[in-house]
Amino acid sequence: MALLILVLLVSCQQLFTTSLGTALARDGYPDLSDVSLEDALSLLADAQGDQDLAVALVAPLYTAALEATPGSATYDKAATALVEAVVISSGIGTAITDGLQTYLDDGEDALDMDTLLATITVSDSAVTSLQLIAESPPASMTATQAYTAAATLMVAILQDTSTLSLENAEATDFEDADPVLYAAALDLFNHAQSLDTTDSMFGSIFGELPFLP
């Protein structure tokens, strides 16, 4: 199970960055909440896995998506970029690098997925952003992006529930822990399935995890 989850995380990371390495070091960014959508999109395109930059871009992209009309071209651009920014901002790259190193050095039995996932940061703004995406999925969002967004919400539920362990949790445990977030994650998963016409490896892996009924 641990290796299966790690493969899923690798798929998430490969989707949104060009490297599994640690994000470029930064001393922090100024407040970017008021930058235009076009500027935010340009900055995100250059992020290259930079977690701090992605964190700073969540706010303007969320605002742009929230203020746009769902179904419009502006909404689709802002909302799809918002998913990307949220995933990069979580710091999943470092978690994967550490997990892969542990697996290569000591084998699958040495992987503690709960500890690994605890290093991923899913902020309140990230959760709010993904709930917006779940309510109005952008037309340009791919199946893999939707699967990733669903998985990110599941990580958020795990991190807010100290008694829930990824290694032995059932779908009902996630639902009981946070029915609102679980419903949003289900919406994203179902949307991903509706787009996934090729029976992708990503979807197959996701379906094997204890996230869903």
Number of helices: 11
Percentage of residues in DSSP E strands: under 5%
Mean pLDDT: 78
Low-pLDDT runs of 5+ residues are 17-27
Radius of gyration: 16 Å
What is the domain total for the residues?
A: 1
Mass-distribution shape: globular
Give a verbal description of the structure.
About 5% of the residues have low confidence. Helix content is 66%, strand content 0%. The longest helix is centred in the last third of the chain and has 18 residues. It has 213 residues and is mainly α. The chain has 11 helices and no strands. The protein has one domain.
What's the quick description here?
This protein is mostly helical and 213 residues long. 66% of the residues lie in helices and 0% in strands.
What is the topological layout?
Elements: H1 2-16, H2 37-45, H3 51-67, H4 73-89, H5 92-106, H6 113-118, H7 124-135, H8 143-160, H9 171-177, H10 179-195, H11 201-207
Helix pairs in contact: 1-5, 2-3, 3-4, 3-7, 4-7, 4-8, 7-10, 8-10, 9-10
